[in-house]
Amino acid sequence: xxxxxxLLVLPSARAGAGGRSPVVDPVGAVVLTLxxxxxxxxxxxxxxxxxxxxxxxxxxxxxxxxxxxxxVLAALTGDWxxxxxxxxxLLSAASLLYLIIFGSLxxxxxxxxxxxxxxxxxxxxxxxxNPLVAVLLGVALGGERLPATAFVAMSIIVGxxxxxxxxDARRRRR
Length: 174
Description:
This protein has 174 residues and is an all-alpha fold. The protein contains eight helices and no strands. The chain is globular and about 60 Å long. It starts with a helix and ends with a helix.
């Protein structure tokens, strides 16, 4: 799955404006990698840690803490100064509302529930499926075109997730 995701986002996999390949920002790549690592560590920790009851309280505390920390980071980097309400369109406001409802309230709550009832291996496959879904949404809703390598990458991702699921099911049967 990881190989498929790497193939999906490699600069050589897509031609940018004017036919040139886009360049991967090394700082952005490190931040994304550290973010994924932090997410994994936090997910594994949350399975074993004592959390607030009811579960909705624990989820709300995590989301509020993340929101506060990101707001502070936005203030420190000057992002709040660059936010102009006149630039907010109906589409961008609806997109934000969609992410709040489906990405955070429903998606994160479901993820936290899955961590309690499923194996970490099975739950962890989201990291490989999410980029695939994002690319397909870009094609369906954003009019993006996929290069041939994207189909190879998506096949590798789906194959990797299938292998993880098969091995995980076999372990549970034993």
